[in-house]
Amino acid sequence: MDETEPFCVMDCSLVRLATGRTCSNLRELLEAIRTAPEAVIEHHMMRCAVADHFELYEFPNDFARWCWTALGDNVAAEELGLIDPYRQYSSGPLRAMLVNTIEGRLWGLDHVRWCRPGLELHLIESRLIAYDTEERLNTPSALLDAIEQMSMRSLFYHVHEARRRTEGRSDDFSAWLEQLGADPGLISALRAIDFYFLNLSQLREALIEAFRRYVAGAPPVPRSVA
Amino acid sequence: MRLLDRYEEVVGHQEVERLRRLAERLAGKRIVHVNSTRTGGGVAEILGWMVPLMTELGIDARWEVINGPPEFYRVTKAFHNALQGLPVSLRKSDFDLHYEVNRENASRLNLEADIVFVHDPQPIYLPEFTPPDQVGRWIWRCHIDASRPDRGVWKYLETAMSRYRAAIFSLAAFARPMGVPMFLIMPAIDPLSEKNCAMPEAERLETLARFGIDPDRPLLLQVSRFDRFKDPLGVIEAYHLLKPYYPTMQLALVGGPADDDPEGAEVLREVQDRAGGDADLRVLLLPPDSHRAINALQRSATIVLQKSLKEGFGLTVTEALWKGKPVVGGACGGITQQVHDYHTGFLVHSPAGAAYRVHYLLRYADKRQRMGQLGHDFVLQHFLLTRNLRDYLAMLLCLDHPEAGTLVV
Fold first, then answer.
1. Is residue B196 part of a domain?
2. Strands B281-285, B250-255: parallel, antiparallel or unpaired by DSSP?
3. Within this chain, do residues B208 and B319 fall inside the same structural domain, yes or no?
4. Handedness of CA B223, B227, B230, B234 (dihedral sign)
5. What pLDDT, on a 0 to 100 scale, did the predictor assign at position B259?
6. Cα nearest neighbour of B383 on chain A
């Protein structure tokens, strides 16, 4: 355990950029998904989670939410909401899956619905600026203590962004615990969390619950600052 | 006590520490903000806290202000209206005056810096007259909804953009493509300002007494200019629809006097006519510096309305949410970013919709309280000036590394 590097807590900030493109109906969304840069799809399917706050958001991505709230197309919303981008390890298959879903929906429609002026989907791309907080953790119970306190942005970086970075293999927490030789049950429990369908506050609860099952009784250890 | 320590009491130690960590990467960077006034208006308010906070974070930040004759400000007021889509009538001499005032200010101001933020259209031509070796990068910060500008004015301003590296808009809906990266940074409120700080109960009650408002009866409140886009008549209609169900309910419509705005004066007259002699419906005209009075009224409201038909970001909504009030707001502009149905309030599309949602909220005190708490937490997380500052810092880091998707600094 002593030979393993301490866990380095990162934080991040999302830098958002307007593309100047908007969609007013499902046909325009289809065209946008076909042609927009990868960063746009990544933002609306994955990084939009950083801005989430409420527990009752029906859908985990911007495309599904917009179909539900602005177009009133509940079928499209439900189908788009079920697409998990973290199961597509490159942008090509994800884009193809989105296109296929929307095409399928359009196929069955006699007419497309338009959103009310003012409720258009404005396409955005984003960059994630990550930085070291200089906070270092040495034990699983210290990590649990830190997860209870860390910013939503840190949670996003160590789980969502880590999955993207590792092509779906692992979040940062379980990767570090694995190096530490922690209980394989804890590592599996952390990796089994379906994080994409949780908001960040629910994700925090799920992580804590998994830890408590395996690190129960461990007294909280104060975090060390390097 | 240092400024950041005071904010730490509101946003927590961790948030301020993270700001410090992020700012370390920009230590010593020379940044200049330029606008057209040091007092009055939203931009001056923002720079009033942003420059000292940047300095405290180790950035060499300064604030310069351009000046010009009264005629210059008439022209720039017209530019402002034109960017928001209002038709304006400007002569070539007006554009020439704007250009010349920028030339004069460029020679007078100390703009030597790594980055210069130019706020709004007034100083937009400064780069044209500044030696290229004085400024590393120019960034235009547009605080206005420029999505549907007057064509002539836009063409004139767009020409200036060739010397800029980037632009910043408050919302994607306000941006207009202009050939440079368009960053998005939502505005924020200052939780320690007169308008948003905690307030002694005695002062709150004294303010209500001064305006003849009963603190023991429900109060609906809308704070906004008397402008058709804010739909004050729609608010009165909603109030009239509800009054039979809640006879003790009061409504306060709070705005500034409209002496210099002919259309505003007309709207105010209509509002006063429609209010009639109803003692429970107060139309209050307050001077522009009535921040504490507005603070007291927002804290006293049962529900806050912002029933706009067209809106900028809607910082009055942010202020109300910060004070733990559910908001019933028109589904437009920045209100849609802040009001989320059943969470922080309700978005509505008509006076009937406003009446329906207010009815629901008046009936269920527990829901009001829950939404008020969520609204407060939402602002704490997303709409305080520390988040705004973090966005600026991250954007500056992004400028240094334009190629990266995810950048570890």
1. no
2. parallel
3. yes
4. positive
5. 58
6. A51
Whether B21 and A11 lie within 8 Å, measured CB to CB: yes
User: CB A13 to CB B22 under 8 A?
Assistant: yes
Tokens of A31: 């065209």
Write out chain A residues lying below 8 Å of B340, CB-based.
54
Domain-embedded: residue B407: no
Say which of A16, A118, A151 has its CB closest to residue B184. A16
Structural domain including B103 reads 3-188+384-400
Looking at this predicted complex, what is its ipTM? 0.90
**Domain spans, chain A:** 7-12+132-225, 13-125
From A51, A129, A161, residue closest to B409, measured CB to CB: A129
**Per-residue pLDDT band at B80 (split at 50, 70, 90):** confident
Q: What is the pLDDT of residues A43-94, one digit of tens each?
A: 999 999 988 777 666 799 999 999 998 999 999 999 999 999 998 767 789 9
Residues of B in contact with A36 (CB under 8 A): none
Q: Nearest-CA residue of chain A relative to B11?
A: A151
Contact in structure between B369 and B252 (CB atoms under 8 Å): no
Distance in Å, alpha carbon of A15 to nearest chain B alpha carbon:
6
Interface check B172 vs A, CB under 8 A: yes
Same domain, B377 and B389: no
Q: Which of A119, A134, A165 sits opposite B21 (nearest CB)?
A: A134
Listed in sequence order, the residues at least 6 apart from A194 whose beta carbon sits closer than 8 Å to its beta carbon are none
Shortest distance, CA B179 to any CA of chain A (angstroms): 10
Q: Tell me whether residue B193 is in a domain.
A: no
Q: What is the pLDDT confidence band of residue A221, given thresholds at 50, 70 and 90?
A: very low
Task: Count how many domains chain B has.
Answer: 2
Closest among B17, B235, B147 to A118, alpha carbons compared: B147
Q: For B394, which of A15, A42, A149 is closest by C-beta distance?
A: A15
Size of interface A-B (CB pairs under 8 A): 98
Please check whether residue A51 touches B, CB under 8 A: yes
Q: Could you tell me if B262 and B374 lie in one domain?
A: yes
- Tokens read off for B187: 């505005």
Which is nearest to A59 in space by CA: A71, A74, A39? A74
pLDDT digits over A154-182, tens only?
999 999 999 998 887 899 999 999 999 99
**Distance between A209 CA and the closest CA of chain B, angstroms:** 23
Asked if residue B141 is part of any domain, the answer here is yes
pLDDT of residue A217: 56
- Asked whether residue B165 falls in the same domain as residue B52, the answer is yes
**Adjacent-strand bridge partners of B184:** A16, B169
Which of B141, B178, B406 should be substituted to probe chain A, the one whose Cβ sees the most A Cβ atoms within 10 Å? Answer: B406
Give pTM, 2 decimals.
0.91
Distance CA B321, CA B343 (A): 11
**Interaxial angle between packed helices B13-24 and B385-400, expressed in degrees from 0 to 180 and rounded to the nearest 10:** 20
What number of CA atoms fall less than 13 Å from residue A223's CA on the CB side?
19
Do the beta carbons of residue B118 and residue B31 sit within 8 Å?
Answer: no
The CATH number of the domain where B48 resides is what? 3.40.50.2000
